[in-house]
Amino acid sequence: MSFQAVPLLIFALCAVLVITGVFVLIRQQWLVQWLKGTAGLLFIAVAIYFSLFALNLFSYQQLTREAPVATVSFKEVSPQVFSATVSQPNGTVSEYELNGELWQLDARIIKWKGLFALFGFAPGYQLDRISGRYLSLEDELSRERTVYEVKTPAIGFDIWQSAKSGWSMMVDASYGSATYLPMTNGAIFEVTLSNTGLVGRPLNGSAQEAVERWD
Questions:
Q1: pLDDT of residue 213
Q2: What is the pLDDT of residue 64?
Q3: List of the chain residues with pLDDT < 50
Q4: Intra-chain end-to-end CA distance of the chain, in Å
Q5: CB-CB contact of 152 with 127 (8 Å)
């Protein structure tokens, strides 16, 4: 099933919980009313939690093995400084200024557990960050490093971080990183997500020549 179907199902469940909570709150008789009121507030709190959970899911995209997750192109600004343009399949285009000669892109991956896994819902991913690196160890230790967040800021709480810390019964969290690749003026790379993580491949002559020189 589609990854985007999961947050829609969660929203439907939240609507049922809110309606049930409100119905319980308007019942009468004090002791029973108090117990029901507590239950009603609990239903509403659970609905709010899962609503935030579902909203955060919309910042992820369905993971399709070997499908492109980004195209990264480079323009040299000055020696050891490059402008990197990251284009994603959903139409998002972002620019970052990276220092060094190498670049790396990371992603967050979530896989379903329990009933969601049983029903075969697809896993999801979100690009996490892009970073630059120097070839020289001396430069790496002494010069300014650049790391930028690519991910969408979490709403309320971070579902991936919660799962990574072992606090989620619904999803497993993992991390994927591409190997470092060279930056050069005019180079274009395609990044795909495989079973071993992110893989960057040169798309034009400039990128291919840079990889061959680096190897």
A1: 84
A2: 80
A3: none
A4: 41
A5: no
The C-alpha atoms of residue 98 and residue 206 are separated, in whole angstroms, by: 18
In angstroms, the CA 143 to CA 215 distance is 24
Q: Is the C-alpha dihedral spanning 142, 143, 144, 150 positive or negative?
A: negative
Are 62 and 53 in contact, with CB atoms under 8 Å apart? no
- Quick check: pTM over 0.90? no
Q: 162 burial class (0-12, 13-18, 19+ CB within 10 angstroms)? A: middle
**For residue 161, what are the CA distances in angstroms to 86, 108, 178?**
24, 10, 20
Concatenated DSSP letters for 28-74?
--HHHHHHHHHHHHHHHHHHHHHHHHHHHHTTSEE--TT-EEEEEEE
Residue 27 is predicted with a pLDDT of: 64
- In 3D space, the residue among 201, 181, 184 whose CA is nearest the CA of residue 192 turns out to be 201
Closest CA to 193 of 174, 207, 209: 174
Q: Which residues contact 120 (CB under 8 A, 6 or more apart)?
A: 1
Q: Please name the residue ranges forming H helices in the chain.
A: 5-25, 30-57, 114-118, 137-142, 159-164, 205-214
CA dist 130 and 63 (Å) reads 19
Cross-strand partners of 132: 103
pLDDT of residue 30: 56
The full length of the chain comes to 215
Task: Give the integer Cα–Cα distance in Å for 181 and 95.
Answer: 18
Residues of the chain by 3-state class (helix, strand, coil), percent to 5: 35, 35, 30
Q: Which two tokens stand for residue 35?
A: 């117990």
